[in-house]
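Quick one, T. Sequence first:
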Amino acid sequence: MNRWIILLPLIFSVGCTAVRETQPERTATEQLILSSAVVDAARQIQAEAVAGKKVVVDVTYLKTVDVEFTQGELRDRLLQLGAELVADSDQAEVIVEVRSGGLGIDESKTNIGIPSISIPVPSVGTFQTPSAYIYKYERQEGKSAIAITGYESTTGKLLFSVRSLGKALHSDLKLLG
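Structure tokens:
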């Protein structure tokens, strides 16, 4: 009987959890890290030459998965700087071309413990053992390099050329997990 008193809490304290973080191609965490990096990069842009001018944003050279969000953040930043946005380049005094040098996530993981192992079981398939870590640290750093060039629509004269690098960080630390 004393043996059951000791074993019963141990039996109920052992467990395993599996979390499915996403169904889309990218996780919500990835999307938020990238968008935060874009916001940070856009916030750094200084282009006083657009103040009081009719401006059109040209995204022809912006090749990234998040074109719409990046374009929206840059339009927002130009409005904050005093630009009057127009839809047609024929109406614009200034054309702002947007480029992205890169938009991505650097990831690093540090684990101390026993990783999950796949064990083939004949006639059944594969059995996945649970991982048992004493220390687990994951770090994701989103980076967004944005460059914009502004020039007069009639003469093509350069008004400004600005580059910025935005960053966003997400980290997760687990002990005995």
